[in-house]
Structure formats: structure tokens, C-alpha cells
């Protein structure tokens, strides 16, 4: 019957996983999915945004990504629980194990989404999708939507139809009936900026986009306009790729607990980011040629600066040095609330040409940092840290986590003994 692709999407993933864990492992009696509730960060640490919300919370127009304070204004009785990424990762792995019983061609699209190439695996794909959906609920306790179609784009669009716990098809012959009447913002790859430009052309639905002349779209949105027109017509030939493509760049960023107002503290946060980033490079057997930093100040103004390196590197010290040089060129003294380091020019040859004027012994530093990597892998990342990250007795300063960025420590796990389990 041709190509068959499933897109499996966990309904309100973080909140669902939290609800199931509280019900089945912590003795909870109230299902968070049935009341206005949300998973949100710590406002005091400036991570106070909504990460996931229940379906009842949607009635109050609570949006993912909005500040917790705004959400509480919309719904004062909103039940807020902290994020627990270790739980979410375990739940995601459990889902993938079930999917692997149906096909070996699985592409994990995100922590709560996956594509499955089911071509030749089932003569009745809709029935199989329904069986898969029910099995996930029976064995794991949470619900998923499954989109069924002939390519990844249409399968993903189908899984976003009515929720929760449903199977939807979007075969090519159903595009006009099921997809063309939707607002253009519902189409994959159409963001807010593209929506505004399309609206200026009088294009408000996916069907209107599908019939807009190429020349008009190219004049307004260049090649992106032609790409989204293909999507509007249901055209997509991308394969389900079980192995993710190699990284083209590595990045890391963090929001500071308080505004940073001095260079010493800023350099410390940049060092914590460089420490984490360089460890990822070495784990992947990669080096980078370009370092870029990004800053967001207390007025939410964004700025960035990049610097090319003389030789590729995976060393913390060299990445940090380049980041600090960018920082000195960029920062105007305005208090900062967010810093990031981003790298590009990735190479995996792992060969470094020695220079006559090299300021450090690369091999010596590389061996030392690799030894630290091994210790942290075996005993935990806190087994060894640079002395600059250790607070002296009586000292009062803004301390950075010695390996900062990414998922912060308070989001990785939750001390449920301090939580009120409803």
C-alpha cells in the first residue's frame, strides 16, 4: 500500500509523566491532567516559565513559555509542580522501547515525539496505530496521539489534530478536506514572522498558501516560501532517520540567578559554560573553529559577537579565552541576565597542527581534561571542580555552577519529600 509513517506524540508530556508518577509511585489520588495544572520553573531563579500545562488549563489561555506569574494571574487556582527531567527521560525511553516492538526504523524527534517507518509492517495501519496507542496507556499510564500518513510531514500534522489519546490519518487524498482549511500558522515550519508576511499577501489558510504562485512566495519569503508551499501541498520526501545527523555546532547558555554587573562574575559564568561545552566536544570526538557569545541584558536586549580560532580546539581553556575576548569587545556594562557560548566550524579529524607560537601544550592540557572527563563519568560531575568555583568561608558572591547551562540542577530531579502530593 506504499509508504506508511506514524508520528507518535505524547499528550501534555511533562505534565502527563508527572501525573502518572505521582499517582502510581507516590500515592497521589488526584490526577493533575484533570485539573488546571502546569509544570513550571522556579521564579526566584528566573526559570519561572510554563513548560507544560493540562488540557483544563488551556481553557484559561495559559500558554507554554509564558511567565508563571502571568499564568497564575489568569488562573489563581492553577496547581504548579516543578520539572523533573530525569523522570521525563526515563519515561521517554520507556515509550521508545514499546515503539521498537513495531519497527526498527524509529527517529526520535524530541523527548516526547517520534517518527516510525511502518512501511510493510502492517496491512491495517490505522488499526495498528490504535493498538499501539492503547498499549502505551495500558503499560505506561499516559496517552499519545498517533498521526498516520505516507510521509513525515503529513503524519506530524495529523497527530496535532484533536487531542488527547486519538489516532488521525492524513493521507494525500485527505489534504484538501482536513488540512487546507486550517490557519497557515498550523503548518509545520511557519513561524510568527512568516505568518505576518503571508497575511500581508492575503494568505491566511494552508489552502491559500498551497495555491499561491511561486514567484509571489519567493519575492516575499525567498526559498523558505517555496518550501512551505511544498508542505502546504503535502510534499515531503525526508526519510525516517534512526541515527541523528552529526552536530554542526555546539552551544550552551544559562540565565543567571541575579543580574551580573562585573566582569569577574561574567567570566566565571562563561567558564562554567565552556567547561560543559568542551566536555561534550571531547565525548563526541569533535573540535570547533569558531566561538560566539550571546548576551541578554536586564532590558532583554540581545547581542552577540564571534571569533575565529587559529586552530581547532576542544579545550576548556581555549574556548573560555576566546569567549572572554568576545565579551570584552561586546559588553557595554549594562547588567546581564543571560549568557551563552555557541560554536561552529566542527571538525572530527582530531588532528591539530602544532604552531611555532602556541601558548600552551595542547597534548598536555588535552590529557588532563580527558582524565577529568573520565573521573566525572565514573563518580559524578561534582567529583572534581576548578578551585575558582569553590566559595571560601565567609565569602559572599554570585557563584556559578561549575558546569553550567543546559538543564539546570533543580530541573533534573525533584525532592518529592518536600512536595505536597495531592
UniProtKB/TrEMBL annotation:
It is an enzyme of class 2 (transferase). Residues 236-257 are annotated as: Disordered. Its EC number is 2.7.7.7. It holds the Pfam family IMS. GO terms for molecular function: damaged DNA binding; DNA-directed DNA polymerase activity; magnesium ion binding. GO terms for biological process: DNA repair; DNA-templated DNA replication; error-prone translesion synthesis; SOS response. InterPro entries: DNA/RNA_pol_sf (IPR043502), DNA_pol_Y-fam_lit_finger_sf (IPR036775), DNA_pol_Y-fam_little_finger (IPR017961), DNA_polymerase-Y (IPR050116), DNApol_IV (IPR022880), Rev_trsase/Diguanyl_cyclase (IPR043128), UmuC (IPR001126). Residues 5-191 form the UmuC domain. Its cofactor is Mg(2+). The record marks 14 as: Substrate discrimination. Its main location: cytoplasm. Binds 2 magnesium ions per subunit. Mg(2+) binds at residues 9, 112. It catalyses: DNA(n) + a 2'-deoxyribonucleoside 5'-triphosphate = DNA(n+1) + diphosphate. The active site is at 113. Keywords: Cytoplasm, DNA damage, DNA repair, DNA replication, DNA-binding, DNA-directed DNA polymerase, Magnesium, Metal-binding, Mutator protein, Nucleotidyltransferase, Transferase. One of its GO terms (cellular component) is cytosol. Poorly processive, error-prone DNA polymerase involved in untargeted mutagenesis. Copies undamaged DNA at stalled replication forks, which arise in vivo from mismatched or misaligned primer ends. These misaligned primers can be extended by PolIV. Exhibits no 3'-5' exonuclease (proofreading) activity. May be involved in translesional synthesis, in conjunction with the beta clamp from PolIII. Belongs to the DNA polymerase type-Y family. This is DNA polymerase IV. It comes from Candidatus Copromonas faecavium. The gene is dinB.
